[in-house]
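Retro notes - structure team

What went well: the batch runner handled both jobs without manual restarts.
What didn't: labels got mixed up in the shared folder, which is why I'm recording both outputs here explicitly, each with its sequence directly above its tokens.

Job 1
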Amino acid sequence: MSNYTVQPAAGVRGAISVPGDKSISHRSIMFGSLAKGTTIVRGFLRGEDTISTLKAFRAMGVNACDDGEVIRIQGAGLHGLKEPVDVLDCGNSGTSMRLLTGMLAGQDFFSVLSGDQYLRNRPMGRVIEPLAGMGATIFGRAGGTRAPLAIQGRTLKGISFSSPVASAQVKSALLLAGLYADGETRVTEPSLSRDHSERMLRYFGADIEPLSNGARIRGGRILEGREVHVPGDISSAAFFIVAALLVPDSELLITGVGMNPTRTGIIDILLRMGASIEQLNFSETSGEPVADLLVRSSSLHGIEIGGELVPRAIDEFPIICVAAACAEGKTVLRDARELRVKETDRIAAMAANLSKAGVSVVETEDGMEITGGDRLLGCTADSFGDHRIAMSMIMAGLVAKGETTVTDVGCISTSFPSFIELLERVCVR
């Protein structure tokens, strides 16, 4: 499917569950492969990005069987991976490439990481530079800042690194390298990014301690296989949350959503905008909090968004922009420069698309100002090859006047293959 056309909806109603969390799915494969014994993963997201991670570990000799229900991994242990005979293809997945770079830096073999045209253009220096400080030998294009990356594994030493950006990928890459390093590796960041790596490493038995603004890990501790239940991805749920808030006469129950506090910025932002979102049936699974979300149509108002909220909602800003476009008044986003180096420049992409839909948008260096209140106009929107841009503009089409066509929507399969199916199930026409 290249393009998708959406008509305005009369309501968003019913009960759904969204696919497993992408970040946790990636890590379940990685840590299960590095553990001793068997790891069983339930609720794994079978999207293109996570499959790239699975294929990479299979290429390094890991026995990982997928029966469609669970993935059963026979862990190779920290030092049991085999040198891949070919380039490891990360597809479009920045998580795969950056975290694998950290892990591969400590192996006793040579490896090469590459990906699609979009991934090869994303910045890798932010990972490579601190890994070099640990003793890693990594070569790449553009002065060592772009993939493909050639990695000659070697013995690493622990470091203390203060990251200039709040990035779970940078932090996780260094923690993975820290599993192999002599001594302690300490990573701090301006504000705490998502902590799935810390939680899962602790669950698997790593010598790791959370810090108020990061984490520290000591190498050498053997990981033990575990059973991992992957909760629903709040980043995927976000599209349906916003749709149910914006489309009149809507009531939607989304079950089993991961509610990790480092990921719930989207909920806090929408509640501040006036959203009706109830959190029900709290529980915990595999070290991660989970809840059901009941969402009802709401009248939203503009707010200012910045500071510590930004890393807690970094993947959800494209759909937050849609909410802001339909809210009364002005929404100001700042401190979000990181959005410019995602799958695409998400600030520029959303500004361009919302402008096509008749919204007043002013780009800033680290965010944007969106003046909402008027009904969106149907338009032809560009996905820019970015799954979150594509899904956000499809949801915008549910409340626009006239039809909206989003181009190049095949990218949605990287994170949410069942998105269109779920959308058509809950939309009332």
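Job 2
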Amino acid sequence: MKNKILKKDSKFIWHPFTQEKNSNTPVVVKKAKNEKIIDIDGNEYIDLISSWWVNTHGHCIAEIINEISDQAKSIEQVLFAGFTHEPAVNLAEQLVGLLPDKLSKVFFSDNGSTSVEIAMKVAVQYWYNKGKKKNKFMAFDGGYHGDTLGAMSVGFSSGFYEPFSEIINKNFFFSFPENWFGNNQVELSEEESIRQVKNIISKEKDNIAAVIVEPLIQGAGGMRVCRKEYLNKLIKIFKDSRIMVIFDEVMTGFGRTGKMFALDHITEKPDIVCLAKSLTGGYIPLAATIFNEEIHREFVDSNFKKTFLHGHTFTANPVGCSAALASLNLFAKDETFKNIKKIEDTHRKCLSTISKSSNIKKIRVLGSIAAFDLNDDSFKYGSKSVESLKKEFLNRGLLLRPIGKTIYLMPPFCIKKKALEDCYKIIEEVIN
């Protein structure tokens, strides 16, 4: 059976983020439960990256599955232009209740890239509706915001998108002052970043529609962390300059940073928030972009040309909304954030131990997220060295996907302390 599936996979499937010329043979998954993925041969893998950061509570959680099942029996899908339904209304209400007061209007979509794309389109049209042409954006160096054309344009500095350089918007980038345990130069990096920001604003303010940031930690850019003190200063500069602020919380939202959202760590708040991935706990594709009322007001007009003409077939899918509501109910339990704190404490303890015996550097921990860099520059994104490392982790029962020389862990919140400690022992053995 496995060989038959793999033969068909090779014939028909084009896998994402995969160079199929030299990639490892795909694992044929049979089932999953809690933090474990089980392949067709019965081998178990600890999902230490929550299947690309989405399965926050774990796999096949009964509370979410039951809500999905119940909703599918009443209404599985309906267009969202001219119609509405209770799951979408209740979800929007709950999201608004979790966010700062001024963030009050929810626009649903399907995934993180489109959530960002919507934020960017609204930012440009907001100024257009006010009679101004502002179509440039600012963003961190090394950021990643998705793979649609707009999202690509604010992540161009990552180096992922060279083939498309002629067709995407040219935007402005400033340095990300990354921090790690023991970094005594971070304030100098922050000062340089702020200097770059002020310089860009002084020259281009009239052209800039918004700034977009991954708050506190970059995801695909290497799990790089910045200080909340710096982020507060940065956002205030944009606010004082009347530049719209977009927070891309596609990765950081829903408990990952130790609080419900990364924005909960800082006093300065964004004008727009992008959510996806963990919104449904990883069970159904769904995204949301949330706007403040001032932005929304510019689109409410008797002139149809001021309408935001954007939508997707599966916008606010009722089954997805029900899954999201079930996931949010789990966050209402004290146990969830207690588990996140246990994971964070275990990260810190284990990495402190590993750092004494392993050749690693730049250790950082934020909530349930942990990362460190291998002290070996031969590990580059997409290299044979990284593919070999991924394969060795799989052979040892761990699902990890190093980003170049960066190894990171983002386990489901259901993982137990002992299980996570055992994973770290294996990691130490592999990297040494």
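One thing worth noting from job 2: The chain has a mean pLDDT of 96.
We'll revisit the folder naming next retro.
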